Every structure is written in C-alpha cells, then in structure tokens.
UniProtKB/TrEMBL annotation:
Composed of 13 different subunits. Subunits NuoCD, E, F, and G constitute the peripheral sector of the complex. Its cofactor is FMN; [4Fe-4S] cluster. Belongs to the complex I 51 kDa subunit family. Its EC number is 7.1.1.-. NDH-1 shuttles electrons from NADH, via FMN and iron-sulfur (Fe-S) centers, to quinones in the respiratory chain. It catalyses: a quinone + NADH + 5 H(+)(in) = a quinol + NAD(+) + 4 H(+)(out). Residues 340-385 form the NADH-ubiquinone oxidoreductase 51kDa subunit iron-sulphur binding domain. This is NADH-quinone oxidoreductase subunit F. Keywords: 4Fe-4S, Flavoprotein, FMN, Iron, Iron-sulfur, Metal-binding, NAD, Quinone, Translocase. It comes from the Bacteria. One of its GO terms (molecular function) is NAD binding. It holds the Pfam family Complex1_51K. InterPro entries: NADH-UbQ_OxRdtase_51kDa_CS (IPR001949), NADH-UbQ_OxRdtase_suF (IPR011537), Nuo51_FMN-bd (IPR011538), Nuo51_FMN-bd_sf (IPR037225), Nuop51_4Fe4S-bd (IPR019575), Nuop51_4Fe4S-bd_sf (IPR037207).
Length: 434
C-alpha cells in the first residue's frame, strides 16, 4: 500500500505507517517509494537550517525519551554560523529503562526512518558528524541500521556534499557496553569518547560543550524520527495528530508490560488515556485480576493507582498527578503482587546500575535494597520505615550528581505513600515470652 500523502488516514501514524513486522524493514528502494528521504531532499534544497529549527519549534515536538524538553528549543542553543566549527549530533538509542522497548521496534522495523532523521537534524544544526549510540544488546537493530546506512551512503545521502550541497555529514552506528547510566546524555558522551560512563557537571550543557568539547545535540530515537514528517507536512499537521486529546502535539509510542493480556507498543495520539492503553490495546489484566498500581513510563517513575487510569498520558497531566510520563510505556501490577517485592526488584536494578560516582547513589541504593529485603522476609524493623522515607529525600533531586538516584527513589516513595500497610506487614513479629 502506498502511503505518499499526509491526507492518507494511515499517515496519522507516521512513525509506524511502514512497519510490517512479518515482512521486515523496507530496503532503500522500497523506502524511497513510500516518500522516504523526500523530507531530506526538500530541506537541503529549499530550507535554511534556521528555518527547519523554526518549523520544529512551532510544531511543539517535545522529547520522547522521558524529559519532554522541546526539541526545537534545544537545537536553538547550538552555536550557528560559519565560525561555529565542528558540531555533533548523537542519537540516544541506549534504551535500558525497564519496561521500555519502543525504540527497539522503530529501529528494527524502520531503520531508514532513523537514518533520514539523523541526516536531516544534522543539517538543521549544521553538524559535521552523527552517532547512533545503540544499546549493545540490540544486535538485530545494529545489523539493520548498518545495512540501511550503507545503502544511504551509496545513494549520496551521507558523506561529502550531501545531495550536491556544500554541507557534508558522516554518520556512524556505535554500540554501547550495556550500562543504564548511558541513558543520561553526558554519561553517554563520556562513553562515546571512550571514557568511563560517568555523568558530567552541567553547565556547560552539551549544546555548548559536549562530545570532545564541541557543541553537541543528543536526542532520543522517537524524537528524531518525528522530524522528517514535521518538515514534510508542516507544524499544523503535527499538532493535529493529537486529535485534541492534549495540548501537546503529535503521536506517542505507548506500550504496556506486566500482567496484561497483550503486552506491546502502539503509536497513538499523545494524550491517550492509560485506561485505553490497558483495557483496549493491552486487552486488560491477565487472569481476571484487578489492577493494583501502575508505572506511567518506566521504572524510574512514581506509581499511580487505578483511579488515575483516565488521565491523559501527556507530560503535564501525569506530572500533576504526582508522577512522570517518562517513556510512556506503562507497567501494571496485579492485585496479588507484593509491592514490597516489586519495589525491591526495581531498587536492585538501580543499585546495580549506579556508576558509583557520588556517595548518596553508590551507598544509598544498596542500603535501600538491604532494608527492602528485610521487609520482604518479614524481618523489617519499625525504624526502617523512617529510614526508607529519609532515603527518598537524601537521594532526591539536588542531592546527587545526576538523576539516577532520584529516579530510583520515585517508585519507592510512591509505594510508601500508597501501600505503607504492605511494608508494615513485613515488620518482624515480637518474640514470644518464655
């Protein structure tokens, strides 16, 4: 089926419109036949880099990696002009957030979409090199991206004098070493330079001094893949994709994991409710169980309750409810699951993935795991509840070098808020008198 027009109803799902999981990804001729690289051609031949930045800013494309920062605003901080020198574009494809797998689908099934997006955004900020920093375990994605990149380079989309212009751009796929902390953009940059993946102090921000000390933009896979469609079809078209469900624009790759009947990921208008995700697309809870709690977007978000299901899944609405939309892939907890065990499992992950750079994170996360194991075994102490509550403050925002530990504290603090009775049930029973 040809999907060459934005008026086509299938184009209301621009990121997944060409995905056929059975047939596999399109090669270059197939992608070009479906309007592939048309946006890049239009941009290089008709628009200045500043005009592209303005279009994306007007479209209100917010970062899809979790933070929700406007992409066009981020790009506008990059020095432009003939004296700006070497600049870099980095795609954050180090998708290691537990419960998140949207970027994997996009890269495996539509690699040319990401390649085109990287080249186009590279042109918009006048970068000279781009890197797709890919999670090392994504072997299929790496193979398909490298094949697509080779096809694009042979066709003249990558390399010297792109499409006959005076602008040149090289692009590489770089597989990481498998560390969660590389999802933090400055730790990713350190790893890309061959250093230990520790976060850097900010400011300076990467847009001013990033990779090898040069101006660098880091964007998520899903964020970047929206850009060619925005440039080709316009900011108003992109805003309309939300169908009035949210003041945010576009579609969102949503998903569901945990004890649901049909786990997966779907491209839907941003602002779709969590109830629709769970009950319509994921087919409801498995085995007829009731929902106890859910994470809105990965392990580093606060738990919400069943009464929050009708909230729009957008950045501001979920924030007002006391959590973060994060990556937008919800994880559900059933009524018969222990919240203490669920949180302990998450904290073990975060403790293992700490880079060890700062003391609160390095020592505080294992401390929380030790206490949670005691509660899980029915050996918790009353004062330990206070310690857990204090840890959520001591490891909170502003107390650590980066956002790793504060993110780890979000599921813990919300579990203590909503399910304190389950922790109290893990208190050690007093010894019986002889």
């Amino acid at each position: 089926m040809s999907l060459r027009s934005a008026a086509d109803p299938h184009y209301q799902r621009p990121l997944t419109r060409l995905i056929d999981r059975a047939a596999g990804p399109l090669d270059l001729p197939g992608f070009e036949a479906e309007n592939g690289y048309s946006s890049l051609k239009k941009s290089v031949r008709e628009y200045t880099p500043q005009q592209i930045q303005a279009i994306v800013k007007d479209a209100n494309l917010r970062g899809r990696g979790g933070a929700g920062f406007p992409a066009g605003v981020k790009w506008s901080l990059v020095p432009m002009g003939p004296d700006a020198g070497e600049k870099y574009l980095v795609c954050n494809a180090d998708e290691m957030e537990p419960g998140t797998f949207k970027d994997r689908l996009l890269m495996e099934q539509a690699p040319h979409q990401l390649i085109e997006a990287m080249i186009l955004v590279g042109y918009a900020i006048q970068a000279t090199r781009g890197y797709i920093f890919l999670r090392g375990e994504y072997i299929v994605a790496a193979d398909r991206l490298n094949k697509a990149l080779a096809e694009a380079r042979a066709a003249g989309y990558v390399g010297k004098n792109v499409l006959g212009s005076e602008w040149s751009f090289e692009l590489f796929v770089h597989t990481g070493a498998g560390r969660y902390i590389c999802g933090e953009e400055t730790a990713l940059i350190n790893s890309l330079e061959g250093r230990r993946a520790n976060p850097r102090a900010k400011p300076p921000f990467p847009q001013i001094a990033g990779l090898w000390g040069r101006p660098t933009v880091v964007n998520n896979v899903e964020t970047l893949m929206n850009v060619p469609h925005i440039v080709l079809n316009g900011a108003d078209w992109f805003k309309g994709l939300s169908q009035g469900k949210s003041k945010d624009a576009g579609t969102k790759m949503y998903g569901c994991s945990g004890r649901a009947n049909k786990t997966g990921t779907w491209e839907l208008p941003i602002g779709t409710t969590a109830r629709e995700l769970l009950e319509v697309h994921a087919g409801g809870m498995r085995d007829g169980k009731k929902l106890k709690a859910w994470l809105p977007g990965g392990a580093s978000t606060d738990f919400l309750l069943p009464e929050h299901l009708d909230l729009a899944m957008d950045f501001d609405t979920i924030a007002k409810a006391g959590s973060r939309m994060g990556t937008g892939l919800i994880a559900v907890v059933a009524e018969d699951q222990s919240m203490v065990s669920a949180v302990r499992n998450l904290e073990e992950f975060f403790a293992r993935e700490s880079c060890g750079w700062c003391t609160p994170c390095r020592d505080g996360l294992p401390w929380s795991v030790k206490i949670l194991r005691a509660f899980e075994a029915g050996q918790g102490q009353a004062e330990d509840l206070d310690v857990l509550a204090k840890l959520t403050k001591w490891l909170g925002p502003g107390k650590t070098f980066c956002a790793h530990a504060p993110g780890a504290m979000e599921p813990l603090q919300s579990a203590l808020k909503y399910f304190r009775h389950e922790f109290e049930a893990g208190l050690a029973k007093p010894a019986k008198a002889a």
